[in-house]
Structures are given as C-alpha cells and as structure tokens.
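Good morning C.,

I know you're traveling, so I'll keep this short. The sequence:
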Amino acid sequence: MITNLQKTSRKDDIKLLIWIIVGFLVIVWLCTPPGNKFLQMCFWGNNTKFLVARITNNVDSKEYIFHRNNAVYLAKMYKDKKRALKEMDKAISTLPTFASPDELNSLYKDRAAIKVMAQDYRGALSDYMNAGVNVNNIGFNENLTIALLFKEVGNYREAMSYCNNILNKDNTAYAGYACISDLYSSLGRYDLSLKVWDLAIDRKKNNAQAYVDRANTKKQLGDLEGYNADIKKAKEFVPTIDLDKSIIYDTLHPKILMLTIRKV
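The tokens, ready to paste straight into the viewer:
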C-alpha cells in the first residue's frame, strides 16, 4: 500500500514538473518579442498553410500571396522592417507571369508602404513610381505621401503637383494646404507658408488644426502675439486639440501599417 502511494506520488511529481516547465516556457514566450502574440500566431499559421500547400503541390500560383501576407505580419510585429521587405521581394519575384499588371502594381504599392515605415523614402518613391501611380489615379492620402516623398528627395516641382492635386479634388482639403505649406516651410519661405494657411482658413473657418498650423508658422516668423491669438481660436473650436499633432510628421512616420491580410 505504501509502495503504491509512492508510485502515484512520483507520477504526480513528474506531471507537476512538466506543467512548471510548460508554464515557464509560456512566460518566456510572452516576455520575448514581438509583443503582439496574436499576430505572431497568425504568422505561424500562414507559414503552416504555406508548408501544407507546398507538400500538396498547390502553391505555384499562390506563393506570392503567402510571402506578401508574411511581409504584412512581420512589418506589424517588428520595428526593423528588413525581414518584411525580404518577404515582399519574394512576393514580387514569385508573382506568376500570367498575373495582371494591376496585381504587380499592388505589390509595389504594398512594398512602398512598408518602406515608408522603414524611412526608406527614396526606395518607397521608386516603388510608387514602378506601380504606375500618378496624380490622377490615387486618393488624398497617397497624394500627400508621394508629395512628401518627392520633397524628401529634393524634387519640389513634382511634390507641388501632388499637393495641388489634393486641392483640385477638394479646395477645402486640409491635407492639401498642409502639403503646400510644408514645401514652402522646408525652403524657408514661412511668409508664403503663412499665406497658404490664410487661404485655408478663409475657405474653412472652423478648421481648428489649420489655426494651430498657422500659429506655428507665425511663431517661426517671430509673431508671438499672432501665435497666441490663433491657438486661442483653435481651442474655441476644439478645446482638447493636440498642439503637437502634425499630419506631415505622421505621414512620413506612420505608427500603424494599414495593409490587410489577403485571402489565399
């Protein structure tokens, strides 16, 4: 009887030890990068599907999608985008020859978005150009992004054309005025930047953020009284407005990758 109890006790001790080891490994996993474990599990799931597809010889026309999705997961999980960009390179290189030009252009635009997050602005601009974008076939956000990328490489003429295209679509669009104002400010022409904000406010007098931006421009020109007046006006419209917010900075330093996962 005593012997049986000892055997049971040993089995229980082994089970307890196993659970302790498993628990320790789980804690280590939870404490190691990346922080988003849900994305990490999705990444593993995508690779498992890819492995099964290769084993069953059902991957030829879909391989690029696996690599593209891997790139999205990696870009969202890690600050360093090198692995994500390698996966995007694989996605482009494995795209079937019979795929449509639109599909290739879509991959270039996806890689450009990741390169913007990696602050590879020249590379991102190159990918956007390879995707065949122009001022007529993209929306507000991409117009602003590409304008700022042209500015980063010193091509102000092209940058201005993309800025203007935003206002051509909507002459009250805040992004368009912010875009043009930033170009002038980058050239040290704060006087012209101020005129841009005057026009923006004249066309939309309740735009609190425009008052903040005009205030900052006035500050650059040494007009502290004008700065305080515009900040006061902005807070009348939005009392909790963030005075440090910048659409220009956020566009070139996005915190979130907006790309979604594609179905295989």
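Safe travels,
E.
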